[in-house]
Amino acid sequence: MLDEEGIAYEGFIGALYPFMDIAALVTAIVLARLSAERKAAVQMAGQPGGVAALAVGGGYGNGKAQMVRGILVDTFRSAAISALMLGLALGILARPDSVYENFYDILFRGLLSILMLIMGMEAWSRLSELRRVAHAYVAYGLLAPLAHGALGFAAGLIVHQMTEFSGGGVVLLAVMAASSSDISGPPTLRGALPEANPSSYVGTSTGLGTPVAILSIPLWIALADMFIGV
Predict the structure, then answer these.
(1) How confident is the model over 79-93, as pLDDT tens digits?
(2) What is the pLDDT of residue 134?
(3) What is the pLDDT of residue 117?
(4) Pick from 108, 111, 127: which is nearest to 211 by CA?
């Protein structure tokens, strides 16, 4: 849309997405595992002698910090996050030009279309279950893209005022902040959190968040034109 409107933008903006994606996935996994550990601690505390055992085992104070470190280490060692980090390292340290020209540039859009078609079918099939099991996620999936996009737009606007960051770059930051991890997110969560209900994260990200993020693109372009004059 920026190309069609003739709006200039920095070419490196798209390269920020893997960093945002990994940070978001690690945060999600850590929060989920902390919640699981907290529930397990509460259940243990409710049993006879549970509070004493929890205190001796380091359930409070420094034990919590040690638990967070352990979860972070396990998260980065997981197959899904390790694959993302490895791909990022290969792109930075290696010379992927030939691989890109001979493989990714030719097949990427077609394979991505097939993947998104499959994910869309799965998200559609899970929307009815999403309404039953995750009412809060429905509201989050509809409102979060706008809220996160506004934060990304504000950050881009600040960078624009401080540097020569383009209006198109501000729009792209808003779009990426509004988007959800609907490609790498589901397989990562399946591997790291197999106990999680896929209807919650697939239905919310692909079924609700992605359409809202796509439909909000004209909003960010209009705001950029209003504040910057693209």
Answers:
(1) 667 777 787 787 777
(2) 65
(3) 83
(4) 127
> pLDDT per residue over 31-55, tens digit each?
888 888 888 877 777 666 555 544 5
Q: Which two tokens stand for residue 186?
A: 């589901």
CA proximity to 216, closest of 156, 152, 163, 166: 152
SS3 of the chain: the string is CHHHHCCCCCCCHHHHHHHHHHHHHHHHHHHHHHHHHHHHHHHHHCCCCHHHHHHHCCCCCHHHHHHHHHHHHHHHHCHHHHHHHHHHHHHHHCCCHHHHHHHHHHHHHHHHHHHHHHHHHHHHHHHHHHHHHCHHHHHHHHHHHHHHHHHHHHHHHHHHHHCCCCHHHHHHHHHHHHCCCCCCHHHHHHHHCCCCCHHHHHHHHHHHHHHHHHHCHHHHHHHHHHHCCC
Provide the pLDDT for residue 47: 65
Could you tell me the pTM of the whole model? 0.75
